[in-house]
Amino acid sequence: MIAANYQSVKKDFADFYEKVADKNETVIVSKDGGNDIVILRLDRYNELTKEARNKAYLEKIDRGIRQLEAGFGKIHDIIEVEGD
């Protein structure tokens, strides 16, 4: 992981791009008075967002299981619908 200020990244963007794209580095960019940002490869971003979605989905399943175990489940008959 590389930390750099905004001016350095702006001045040497091609170098930072190469580090991120080719060497899979992550760059934290800071600017006085501003919010820090992170630059990372798209495939890594996609992995992180997928992990977050999966975690949220598994938490919903766990919550449902706890509700069933606490007696909050209901039994329903399965209704089959004929074609379109």
In short:
This protein has 84 residues and is of the alpha+beta class. The protein contains 3 helices and 3 strands.
Question: Explain this structure to me?
Answer:
The protein is 54% helix and 13% strand. It has helices at 6-11, 13-23, 42-69, and strands at residues 2-5, 27-30, 37-39. It is an alpha+beta fold and 84 residues long. The protein starts with a strand and ends in a 15-residue tail after the last helix. The chain has a 3-stranded mixed β-sheet. The protein is elongated, with a radius of gyration of 23 Å.
What order do the helices and strands come in, and which of them pair?
Elements: E1 2-5, H1 6-11, H2 13-23, E2 27-30, E3 37-39, H3 42-69
Parallel strand pairs: 1-2
Antiparallel strand pairs: 2-3
Large-scale geometry: elongated
Report the strand count.
3
Q: What order do the helices and strands follow?
A: EHHEEH
Radius of gyration, taken over Cα atoms and rounded to an integer in Å: 23 Å
Largest sheet: 3 strands, mixed
Q: What share of residues is helical?
A: 40-55%
Physical arrangement of strands within the biggest beta sheet: 1-2-3
Report the span from N to C terminus: 54 Å
Mean of residue pLDDT values: 94
The secondary structure category is alpha+beta
Uncertain stretches = none
User: What percent of residues are in strands?
Assistant: 5-15%
The tally of helices reads: 3
